[in-house]
Amino acid sequence: MDFCKFVNVFHGCGEIELPEPKGIAARWFFIKAGCGNTSPAASLPFSRLTAGPYSGGYPTGYGDHMPNYHSRPPHFPEGKGLLGFSHLHQSGTGAIGYYYNYAVVTPRYADSPLRVIPTNEKAQPGYYSANLNGIKCELTVTKRLALHRYTFDKDEGEILIDFNNNGLNLPGQSRKTVSGLKVNLYEESIVTAGAEIEGVKIYFAVKAVGGTFSLDENNRAVLRPKKRERIAQLRVALTVKGHEKALEDLKTPAEFDSAKQAALDEWNRYLSRIEIKAYDDRIYEIFYSNLYHSMVKPANWHGESFIYGGDGPFMLDFNTLWDMYKTALPLIFLICKKEGENIAETLLKVGEHLGYLPNSFGLNAQYDVSRSQARMLGAYVLLTAYRFGLEVDPKRMLKVIITDLLTDDKEDFTLFGRCKSHTWLLDMSDACAYAAKVAREIGEDETARLLEPHAEKWTRVYDKNTGLLDENSSFYEGTLYNYSFRQTADMEARIALAGGEERFVKLLDDFFGFGKPAVKQPTDPYNYKSVEEGMKLGRFEGFNNESDMEAPFSYIFANRHDRTCEVIRGGMKYMFTKGRGGIPGNNDTGGLSSYYVWCALGLFPVAGSDLILIASPFVKSAKIKLSSGKELCIKVNNAGDNNIYVKKALFNGREIKNHRIKACELIQGGEIVFDMSDC
Fold it and tell me: Which of 10, 81, 462, 525 is the most exposed place for a label (fewest CB within 10 A)?
């Protein structure tokens, strides 16, 4: 089956164009910018190298968006034109401070304008093409190379390569450059370059097929195609291992059309790990486009660690781990054994080398720039990988988690039981609870005794009068309401603290807007006051952000699965659609796209724990090739837009009680049968 035919590579790369929300979906309030921030760059699954169109726009280097943080993104008209094509791209992130886009390649004629609006722009998984001023531009990638092919419609064309580029190119803002750049003509058809970029030494080697190189006065490589041939091809290698490694990678066999087909075949293999049957043809494109954008990152830099050295696994671009740990990485653990285990091994080695687990890291020497967002997220990732049955040594994992817990910057929690942000305390308390449970299971009782007192500290940040988090805290991308309904390790105690099931459900109903009037979304990027006013509503962020994405599933623990169904189906119907505007907010390295995939299948993972919760599936059936080597089949009886409620669900013939399955059982495969109803 050709799964790639359903993928729109441009999905989520523009400003949102969502259906007019109705029902409960009209009650939610977006606090983040309305754009998905994905990239259409040519990529392999978990690709180290990407090659894509470069306009300098925020944040991927593509499109005409200026930096944006809320409402609709501001645009700059020049951004509709391309400056060329660049290498390495972020995927779905917001303002993380570094944006790649290295070695910009610009095909042109002497009279070409600086920016050219692309025509006939096309993409498929692993391939991008466009026409720039009569030049057909094509890009694809292999595991070691980015391949360019340029077909000129007349003589006197040339190709410039600017190794000095670093990040975005926006009006009114200084362009970042690299440090210590050295460009050399290695041979007439090969140019090498080296520089320090964001604190990391990067080495390039570029080989021309169909022309020779020279250097201009700006230290750019200039390639002029052979006369009358009008076709020039580039092979681009990029590494942290030195010039010799870059030159060695250039020798990797790779013919453009064969590489393009191989990339398509590779994507088909990965996308085939979940085969769905839908009752609505629109679902195929939305589902597989989201699945595609869930497997672009993290990037596989095997053997290229600049943190701990060695030739083993090294995965990069955990640039929004506070979003990835909830659904993006669990999805990878569900269906990608090799990549899942490489992620776990990377985090273990990083933790052992640094003495702590950073909240984010990419191709950047600054590992602690995101400490304010959350805490101990690496612990959740490792625990989830372990619970999904991947090969993770539990004793080694617990040692790394304990080391992270006992760092000096967490003494506010470990010694005093208070933090600047309540969410930090919740992060650490639940991580300790989940880790302590593993320690007990494997007989590490001393470790469990160390962790268990910390697991009880979560109650300190709730106001027993309101049943919510108390207001004496800062909150990242949200308010106390957005963080009051996360799943804790002890949901029974959490609901009791709120005053019991009935009161907890009432608090949830108010949060999601049941019985409340519809809200108006902010659209003016220069008016933050409207956002502040909207945040005072204390309302769900409506899948525009990951801060409260788990909240719909807290109804389950109060025996109101019907409410979970209503929120999830309303969100998936009105907040996700086809096209460039089809993702409701920053996709954050797969954070939102993976959520859609889980919900379509009727499942939701509780990160760090052994729990999978039952959602409201909206496919007719699915076959999932699990990372365990087993297969999970999902069958949905009476699937349809109106049949949103799960009347009964069976797992391997047994009724699923309380809408929960253990991850360790699910990963062994079998069959889930959902019986759906409209009431």
Answer: 81
Please tell me the distance from the alpha carbon of residue 601 to that of residue 287, in angstroms, as a whole number.
Answer: 10
Q: Enumerate residues 6+ apart whose C-beta is below 8 A from 126.
A: 42, 43, 44, 140, 141, 260, 262, 263, 264, 266, 267
- Smallest CA-to-CA distance from 451 within 512, 526, 373, 397 is with 397
Residue 158 lies in a domain: yes
Which structure tokens are listed for 594? 């993976």
- Domain hosting residue 111, numbered range: 37-268
Domain count, the chain: 1
Q: What is the CATH number of the domain that holds 120?
A: 2.70.98.10
Q: What pLDDT is attached to residue 9?
A: 98
Mean pLDDT of 292-303: 98
Answer yes or no: is pLDDT of 228 > 80.
no
pTM of the full predicted structure? 0.98
Query: 323-346, pLDDT tens digit by residue?
Result: 999 999 999 999 999 999 999 999
Distance CA 317, CA 333 (A): 16
Angle, helices 422-441/394-405, rounded to nearest 10 degrees: 150
Q: Which residues contact 135 (CB under 8 A, 6 or more apart)?
A: 107, 108, 109, 150, 151, 152, 153, 157
Q: What is the pLDDT of residues 90-108, one digit of tens each?
A: 999 999 999 999 999 999 9
The whole-angstrom separation of Cα 126 and Cα 537 is 43
192 falls within a domain: yes
Q: Is the pLDDT of residue 370 over 80?
A: no
Query: Burial of 472 by CB count in 10 Å (0-12 exposed, 13-18 middle, 19+ buried)?
Result: exposed
